[in-house]
């Protein structure tokens, strides 16, 4: 079994951990020329969404459904948020959660149901044949164009009825059904004398599947962008191995947090403290949020049945782990790291390398499970940054080779582990880098 192999390798090397940061998707799409670009996200105006470009940059929420970017890379996508039904600019009673419905824009300054649908060229051709102009589809919003409002409302209704979360993935059969319905709604809307706000409210009132939020549902604090993305991704069906991997990652994150805090208490280090408190604690929470989302009882490794329970997990003591061997592994890590500050920082290097190896493997296991894969990629990116933080801390205390001093297995280049130039941890002198590159 995979986990038995992992445990053996950890014991042999006295290592392992878990860390994290933001994910960074990539794209071949163009970068636009404007220095600042405002994107209007509208089903009605979508408030408090997480709007992210293809390089993972999060747009600044300027209110009223407008999100600002400097030199964004398309496509740009929105996750979560609330439809501002009354157009008052605030999340209020009667507004509607976007939930898993995703919108995208491949270019331009608006993101709507239309810009999402026309990512599919077959859909674009059908809409153009049915009398929509490119201006209506790519540059207008439901608030500014009544035909766009009819399209948006009818497709929204269809997606809710058929549990579709991505309008770009509508199939030929869907488009065949929708074309007549959209035309009927266009005719009705153009003769109604009502504006888009009134028509949208009428649609929502007629759909029992849509439950507007109540006063108690209004978020009382800022929404975490990363968690908003994860929460906005639909549940997948997990295999036993994927459930096992998620459970084990929770234990890994706890071990990393606990060993860094324990070593910092013995040999105080700002690097150990910052990584433990600013990252690892949050990463335990992010993995646990997935365990809660999938309603897994990770104390039942047979089939994970019984449901998630925060109270059951809270009774597990610090420095103790679901996988018993990790408790003894923690003791071994502590024994090495407590010898000196240098040893403590070397444990950090070892922990991060092993964690990255583990995440490389786990990301393959959860391939296609978007929310878990995204979280694991975040953790791996964080481990890259943490490795360089420990490397820099060692160099700052005179260990010129940094993490390379621990051994070749732990000696990495910036090609191996992309370095966040805005992150903590200095590069020190170039002795270690030369050794990594095989130079004298």
- Say what the CATH topology of the largest domain is: Ferritin
Low-confidence stretches: 4-32, 421-431
Multimeric state of these chains?
single chain
| Rg computed from alpha carbons, rounded to a whole number of angstroms | 25 Å
Number of strands: 10
**SSE class:** alpha+beta
CATH superfamily of the largest domain: Ferritin, core subunit, four-helix bundle
| CATH architecture tag of the largest domain | Up-down Bundle
Shape: elongated
Could you estimate the helical fraction of the residues in percent? 40-55%
Average pLDDT:
88
What is the succession of H and E elements?
A: HEEEEEEEEEEHHHHHHHHHHHHHH
Tally the structural domains. 2
What would CATH call the class of the largest domain? Mainly Alpha
Widest sheet, order of strands: 4-5-1-10
Q: How many helix segments?
A: 15
Biggest beta-sheet profile = 4 strands, mixed
């Amino acid at each position: 079994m995979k986990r038995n192999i992992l445990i053996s390798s950890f014991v042999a090397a006295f290592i392992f951990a878990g860390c994290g940061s933001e994910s960074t998707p990539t794209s071949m799409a163009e970068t636009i020329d404007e220095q600042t670009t405002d994107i209007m996200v509208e089903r009605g105006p979508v408030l408090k969404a997480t709007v992210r470009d293809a390089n993972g940059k999060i747009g600044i929420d300027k209110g009223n459904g407008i999100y600002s970017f400097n030199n964004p890379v398309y496509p740009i996508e929105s996750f979560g948020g609330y439809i501002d039904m009354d157009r008052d600019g605030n999340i209020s009673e009667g507004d509607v959660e976007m939930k898993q419905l995703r919108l995208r824009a491949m270019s331009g300054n608006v993101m709507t149901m239309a810009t999402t649908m026309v990512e599919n060229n077959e859909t674009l051709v059908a809409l153009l044949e049915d009398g929509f102009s490119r201006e209506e589809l790519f540059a207008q919003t439901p608030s500014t164009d009544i035909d766009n409002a009819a399209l948006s409302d009818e497709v929204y209704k269809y997606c809710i009825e058929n549990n579709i979360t991505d309008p770009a993935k509508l199939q030929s059969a869907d488009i065949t059904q929708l074309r007549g319905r959209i035309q009927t709604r266009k005719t009705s809307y153009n003769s109604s004398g009502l504006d888009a706000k009134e028509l949208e409210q009428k649609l929502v009132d007629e759909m029992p599947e849509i439950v507007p939020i109540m006063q108690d549902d209004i978020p009382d604090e800022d929404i975490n962008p990363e968690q908003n993305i994860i929460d906005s991704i639909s549940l997948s069906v997990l295999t036993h191995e994927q459930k096992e991997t998620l459970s084990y990652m929770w234990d890994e994150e706890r071990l990393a947090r606990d060993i860094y805090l324990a070593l910092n208490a013995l040999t105080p280090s700002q690097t150990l403290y910052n990584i433990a408190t600013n990252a690892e604690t949050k990463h335990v929470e992010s993995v646990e949020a997935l365990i809660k989302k999938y309603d897994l009882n990770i104390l039942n490794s047979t089939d994970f049945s019984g449901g998630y329970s925060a109270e059951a997990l809270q009774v597990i003591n610090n420095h103790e782990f679901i996988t018993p061997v990790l408790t003894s592994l923690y003791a071994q890590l502590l024994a090495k790291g407590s010898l000196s500050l240098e040893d403590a920082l070397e444990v950090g290097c070892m922990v991060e390398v092993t964690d990255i190896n583990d995440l490389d493997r786990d990301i393959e296991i959860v391939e296609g499970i978007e929310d878990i894969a995204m979280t694991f990629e975040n953790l791996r990116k964080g481990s890259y940054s943490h490795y360089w933080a420990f490397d820099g801390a060692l160099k700052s205390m005179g260990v010129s080779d940094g993490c390379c001093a621990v051994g070749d297995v732990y000696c990495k280049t910036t090609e191996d582990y992309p370095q966040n130039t805005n992150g903590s941890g200095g590069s020190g002198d170039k002795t270690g880098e030369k050794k990594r590159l095989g130079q004298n």
